[in-house]
User: What shape does this take?
Amino acid sequence: MVSRKDYPGRNFINLHELNKEDLNEIVNFGLEVKADASRSKDLMQNKSFILLFDKPSTRTRISFEVAISQLGAHCTYLDTKTSQLGRGESIKDTAKVMSRYVNGVIIRNANHDELIEFSDNSDIPVINALTDLSHPCQIMADLMTLKEQFGTIQDLNIAWIGDGNNVANTWIQASAIFNFKLNMAIPKRLMPYKEYEEIAKKNNANLTITQDIDSVIKSANCIVTDTWVSMNDLETERLEKIKILKDYQVNMELLQKSSGDAIFLHCLPAHRGEEVTNEVIDSSRSLVYDQAENRLHIQKAILKYCLNI
Ligand code: CP
Ligand code: NVA
Assistant: This one.
């Protein structure tokens, strides 16, 4: 029988549950493999992974599949709807069975609690590939992009403009660990997840949340936004959210209020003309495609961390 001790792995579910040294090592390994892909070649020969997704994905799916292939491992993509989960098989049985086949499961799930239920029943590492509450793999790629660009993370001033969603929540978690200053402009009705904000504040995060967009922009090294309507939002909330967020668009007028060398990041997919204008996302300040590329490199580092290799 295969048991947890045969797979000495670690989960990657929420940044605040991980330690700073490990997270820094992940960022650094991401940069190393970007510079020299041979560093990761065949690191995981004979390993297998499952991507278990219940939401659409372009970047996360492709970057994990390609990373796994370049690591010399094998990957199976499973859509919850076309697996037996879609016919009501329990999360517990699914986790137990998958633990007998593969070395790790990468899950995109609409409901964070279900991901936790899966990991509680899993004997192998579970990686959070986005839930309604957080998106840690994305923020690790973003941090790698910042380090690549500025040579540091902790001295930076990051401005978040927009919805208090899963990506915003994860920036909050990261701020307490990486010690950068995080100034967020978020409408009062769309505030981030309170529990994560409280944990970050308890851990001395340098975090401000305000509705004064100009104050957030002024001293930013990096301006970040995300879609106004997330995959997990109800279709009925769509128009209302767009109305609430209409003044939070990152456009040229806003960008020009920041310092001349501030960069623009967006995890993508972008809704051009809503949270960001073409002019900004296509400008030389925008590093969105480097950021997307870095998903590939950082996934290798996250997998290496999870398998304790
Ligand atoms: N940024 C991101 O997670 O993109 P996908 O939804 O395409 O995976
Ligand atoms: N906040 C977005 C991120 C997509 C990568 C969503 O959850 O849809």
